[in-house]
Each structure stands twice: as structure tokens, then as C-alpha cells.
Amino acid sequence: MEAKKSKKRALRGLIFVAILVGSLIFTSNILAGPQETIMSPTVTRIVATEPVHQKIVELPSPTMTPMPILVVLTVEASLLRPSDPLLVRIVDKNHPVDWWFVLNIRTSLVNVGEACTRQGMKALIWNTPSKAHEVAVNDLCGLMNASYEAGSRLTLRSAFRDLKDQEEARKQTDFPDRVLLPGESQHHTGLAFDFTSPSVGYQLVSEFNNTPEYKFLVEHGWEFGFVESYVADHDGVIQEPWHWVYLGPELARKYLELKAQGIVKDPFEFQALYPQP
Ligand SMILES: [Zn+2]
Prior knowledge:
By secondary structure, the protein is of the alpha+beta class. It has ten helices and seven strands. The site of zinc ion (ZN) has 5 residues, from β5.
């Protein structure tokens, strides 16, 4: 009996120890469990990425709206500084010049025929005296001389006009509505030129764009700083293949570069990229 009792006591002791050890393991598991979950990489990652993820979702169509701003910034950063602000001065219906502006331009005018002769350049000029701004006159002589040497007969028909000349031009035409009002013409700067050729009877007509002289202007005009002004409708003026404006060789090259990229459509839009007075 005594032996049975001591066996039972030993068994109870074993069970007690087993329960104690078991509950110790259980308790340590409970304590260790949550710590492991908090420290686990998955939980940490979710906590870290959640705010970023929310930000991305909240952005309203991020690809479309900022694009024009980016393009303008790129263009402005790469624009050349004009040697003379007059080269990028817009003159049109919305940017007319006054008598004071024209009076100042007059002080910088040069007789084209005399200037070209002095430089030994061959230039065909319809109206003498034709006057141009001194900034453009050397390249103008160079352009006409190069045309002559190449066998084309590019002829200067009209250059600087003052306000009175522009009024006169309106009176002489059958379509006065198509001729700009005094103050609205690029000719007031002394940097705009009308060219023609013998094969169109020295007239200013759209057929000029089928002549070798026009082809010469398109191929080489920019090398001397000249670009066609009215390539698209501007101020209601139809395309004028005879009317070219002087930007100078560097800006002319830059303009054609931006035009080829579709950033500007004509010289007016190019000039608008620069600060205006
Ligand atoms: Zn013109």
C-alpha cells in the first residue's frame, strides 16, 4: 500500500512538473509571438510603403497637364540671346508701333543700293532708294549677291516703310482690307523685305513661290538670317511668299529648329518667346 501511494505521489509530481513546463513554454510563446509579428519584414514594409502608395493614388492624371509647362521651360532655357532686341520685336495688329518708334528707326537706316555697291556686291533693286536697318544691310547684300552668283535673279521690291508709306500702299491696292494699317507692318522696322523676280514681272504675287528665286530664298535665306514671315494665316494676312523678315543668322537657325519640332509655327510665335517691350 505504501509503495503504491509513493508511486502515485511521484506520478502527481511528474504531472505537476509537466504542467509547469508546458505552461512556461505556452507563456513564452505568447510573449514572443506578437514581438515576432511586429518585427517581421512584411509588417514593416506595409507600414513604410502605405503613405507613398496613397500619394500616388491621389495625384490627378499626372502625365497630361504638366507637359506644356515642361516644353516652354525647355525652349526658354535653350533660347539664344538676340544681339539686338529689335530682331525679336513683334510688329503686327496686336503689337503696332507709333510715330516715335519709326522716327528712331529712321536714324539707323542705310541705303541698300549704296551699301551693296560699296561692298562690291551685286544686288538687283526695283525701288531706289530702298532703305534697310543697318543691322540687316550686310546680310541683305550678301543674300542678293549669292543669288546673282548662283544664276537666280532675286530682286528687292520693297524694304523700310514709314507710316505714310503704309497708308499709300493701302490706297494703291485693290484689296485694302488685306493690307495692314499704318503701325502694324513689319516694314516699319527696316528688317522686313519684299522680294520678287523677272519671271513674275517683278510683281508681289503668290506665283512667286514657283520661281527659282523663291527656291533660292528657301534654301539659303536662313544662312543670311532671313525667314518667311506669313507662312500661315496671321492677322488675316494670307501666305505671302515674297515677304521675308530678318532675324540674323543665329536666330533664323534657331527658329527653323523650333519650327521643325512643331514648337512654333511662324516667326511671330518665335518672337513671342522673347520678352517684348
Ligand atoms: Zn512685305
